[in-house]
Amino acid sequence: MHRVHGVEFRATGFTYLGRDHLDFHSTIENYMRAKARLFVNLPRTAIAALNFDDPTGRFFSEITDARTISYGYGLHRLPMIRGIIRRIDLHGMECEINGHCFNTTLVGTHNLYNMLLAYSIAYALSIPVPHIIEAFTDFPGVPGRWERIQNVIIDYAHTPGSMALVLSLARRLATGNLIVVFGAGGDRDPGKRRPMGEIAARYADFVIITNDNPRNEDPMQIAHEIETGVSNTPHLIILDRRKAIDKAIDMAGEGDLVLVLGKGHERYQIIGDRRVPFSDKEVVLECLSRRHNVVPPSISAT
User: Fold this and answer.
1) How confident is the model at residue 300 (pLDDT cuts 50, 70, 90)?
2) 297 within domain boundaries
3) Name one GO cellular component term (predicted).
4) Nearest CA-CA partner of 166 in 149, 175, 153, 183
5) Hey, which end of the chain has fewer CB within 10 Å, N or C?
6) Residues β-bridged to residue 104
7) Measuring CA to CA, which residue among 110, 109, 157, 131 is closest to residue 262?
């Protein structure tokens, strides 16, 4: 699409290759080739920070002329920048990157990889290591990415790969049942719907299938395609996303964890050709406040 045509990058990075945008690229191979063009066209003076735990990252290192900074999980000796998670719970992690330990409110291996990428580029640009570590410690997180409100987690995960990352992490940290609310976008890659249902069923104790930007497709048809992957896991189809979230929160007991996936920071639903105002976070706050008989706080637009 030539969106970055003519742009000279000083530094670039790659985390991992997952199934996304196949409605445009058709195949994962085409998607990889599109990403590869970024690294093929880099000059020798540029920096390419690449995840060597992903074979695609190692492949990109072979096709670029840029200075490669490799990073990966600390169990491997190959990467130049190595990190590990020393402790993790719902509130955050204690991590170590190249011998430097720190605490962060971020949670999950995927966020360690994000920090490794940021560290690699910052280090290559000669930013002092104490400043990098301080930034990780002070960073409050990204709205809609593992955003926890009491026993509810809101996350943008909307592909099989991202759902697997988030749900496997939640399964590991939950002390009770895991309840997940999610849907799949209309007029987008339909091949990911059944796998998303399978992943939800693999990790969750209860699944609620709902709307997520159905656009011009039949919402119930999308839900039924997801349902084919859910199999025998207890589940409901509640197309009204507000009611689906309310139901999940109402079901949750002591120690249970509710995950609301797919929209994250978005403040709308695309239904037909209309953008209807909708925020998962606002709905979650309303539902929790109603449950506890308190007035929900207002949320400023972002």
Assistant:
1) very low
2) no
3) cytoplasm
4) 153
5) N
6) 93
7) 157
Residues 125 and 201 in one domain: no
SS3 190: helix
Which bin fits 272, alpha (ψ -120 to 50), beta or left (φ > 0)?
left
Q: What are phi and psi of 154, to 5 degrees?
A: -105, 130
The answer on 122 and 22 residing in a single domain is yes
Q: What is the pLDDT of residue 297?
A: 59
Query: Do 132 and 167 share a domain, yes or no?
Result: no
Rounded Cα distance, 174 and 255, in Å: 7
147 contacts 157 by C-beta, under 8 angstroms: no
Q: Which two tokens stand for residue 61?
A: 């290192």
Q: How far is CA 231 from the centre of its chain?
A: 24
**pLDDT attached to residue 301:** 40
> Does 299 fall in a domain?
no
**Pairing mode of beta strands 67-73, 11-14:** unpaired
The 10s digit of each residue's pLDDT in 246-295 is: 999 999 999 999 999 999 999 999 999 999 999 999 999 999 999 877 66
What pLDDT was estimated at residue 111?
95
Q: What is the pLDDT of residue 108?
A: 95
Q: Do residues 96 and 84 make contact, with C-beta atoms less than 8 angstroms apart?
A: yes
Task: Give me the chain's average pLDDT, please.
Answer: 92
- Domain termination residue (choose one: 138, 167, 197): 138
Q: Is 60 left (phi over 0), alpha (psi -120 to 50) or beta?
A: alpha
124 shares its domain with 77: yes
Based on the structure, what is the number of domains in the chain? 2
pLDDT at 72: 95
Range of the domain at 198: 147-292
pLDDT of amino acid 198? 98
